[in-house]
Each structure stands twice: as C-alpha cells, then as structure tokens.
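The instructor's notes for this session suggest beginning with a concrete chain rather than abstract definitions. Hand out the sequence below and ask the class to guess, before any prediction is shown, which regions might be ordered.
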Amino acid sequence: PYQKRLFKKYGGFNKVCNRIKYDIKHGVKNEEIVLFLEKIKTDSDFSDLRKLEGYPDRINEIETKFNDIHF
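After discussion, reveal the predicted structure:
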C-alpha cells in the first residue's frame, strides 16, 4: 500500500517530466537540473534509489529528454 501511494503521488516518467517542466517554468535553470541528476547518480543519499530495478534506464531517459531542451 505504501508504494502504491508513492507511485500515485509521484507517478511515472510523465509525472516526473511534468514536475521538472513546472520547475523550469518557475525559474529553475537547466544547469541546476543537470547538477541534481548528477547528484542522484553519485550522492550516497540516493544509494537506495540507484539499487532499484530499471534505475539506469529511467535516469538516462530523463537526462536525454532534458539535455535536448535549451533554455
């Protein structure tokens, strides 16, 4: 039940992308997004996230989507 609630709240790829677009619309810079994605890849705080199945594919998909956009 807990994981279902988390998925419903934060959703899949499209919800994540929409949240990032919202942040961009409200002043977050592209460099800040790139830095945050790098932090997810390297920081020990996100080690549990990196252990999840499919993590590399999802993070690369998000990076690809937002590296193509220039602000």
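Then share the key points. The chain has five helices and no strands. The CA atoms of residues 35 and 41 lie 10 Å apart.
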